[in-house]
Amino acid sequence: MKVKRLKINSFRGIGNLILEFDETDPTVLIGINGAGKSSILDCLAVLLSHFVAEIQDSTGTGRFSNDPYITEKQKITRRFFRQEDIANGAPKTHNEITISLQQQDVSWFLSLSKIKERPKGADVRELEGICFRIKSQLQDNPEFNLPLPVYYPVNREFCDDIPQKAPKQYWSKRVEVFDQALMGARISFNSFFEWFKELEDIENELRLDNSEHRDRQLEAVRQAIASLLPGFSNLRVRRSPLRMTVMKQNQELIIDQLSDGEKGLLAMIADLARRLAIANPSLTDPLQGRGVVLIDEIDLHLHPKWQCRIIGDLKRTFPNCQFIVTTHSPQVIAEVKCENIYHLEVTSEGVIARHPNQSFGGDTNRIMEDLMGVNTSSEDVCKS
């Protein structure tokens, strides 16, 4: 699965905008606050949520008919536009997405009108067709690999809700992969904790007979953390009291002892690796799984040294995922080719998107001046 095109009409502060996305390299959205970067990610998440809902829905109830472990919470996967999403002065918003999936292009649109008699509109026939095929493949082959769309908003740290007693059995794996994936909600540490502890208990039991045994899904999480967080290793669950710890430079720390930047990156990496492991049961290396990953403010809480690495590290660790991200960081921008950057600008004609003339390998001061409108030599900037 890859996003190829997004057509936006009268969505929040954006009038008319068409974006073409690179299917191989990450796409980076830049611009001043209010230019529409987060709005684009939100629009993509709403549209992609209908893919998730179609895959989960085999009976019209929003869930697999033969899965007894579905919770009411998991059924809430299909998102819609809201009245406040309609641009000021516009009668409706109309937004269309085109993705490539299973060697074909699939398009669908969603609209919302201020007219009460017929507020919602949609054409998801192509989407329903491809999703019916995927569901049939999944029924014929339980090991069938699922494409994964997921959205990480600004508040992507783990929720502070670690259970203080032994967790219950986690939800059905094939459905859990989509749980809260596109809702723009904070990552649930409780859900991750339950999943990790359950598999770690089984792994430890099997290692009594075979000391070399490692759980494939847990190893995917461990490898992803080691790849993107150098010096971090051995994520594990401790008992009495229940807590999750990680080794940092040979020192064992509780997750809450990490910095905000470390916790935010760890949360995102662990969640994405877990979802890919669940979605791709037949892959020896689940990190090779395919998906679309939306990340708002990818530079959040990261030291400039980490900002320089983050795009390349994500691409190297998850090579078959398409990343669409936003940033305010010149360090991030300097690591991306100009054809993979959309500079959003608010003009008298509305929001426009253009590719900058230069970015990759550029001087950060030059990027701040040319792309971000910052006078790096002014006294006010220096004082701040």
Please provide a written account of the structure.
This protein has eleven helices and 14 strands. The chain has a six-stranded mixed beta sheet, sandwiched between helices. A five-stranded antiparallel beta sheet has the order 2-1-4-5-6. It has a three-stranded antiparallel beta sheet with strand order 8-9-10, covered by helices on one side. By secondary structure, the protein is an alpha/beta fold. The protein has a single domain (2-383), classed as Rossmann fold (3-Layer(aba) Sandwich). The radius of gyration is 22 Å and the shape is globular.
The rounded distance between the terminal residues' Cα atoms is 44 Å
Query: CATH topology, which one?
Result: Rossmann fold
The stretches of 5 or more residues where confidence is low (pLDDT under 50) are: 59-75, 166-172
Radius of gyration: 22 Å
State the shape: globular
Q: What is the CATH architecture term? A: 3-Layer(aba) Sandwich
Largest sheet: 6 strands, mixed
Give, in spatial order, the strands making up the sheet with the most strands.
7-11-12-3-13-14
Helix percent reads: 25-40%
Number of helices: 11
Order of helices and strands: EEEHHEEEHEHHHEEEHEHEHEEHH
Strand content: 15-25%
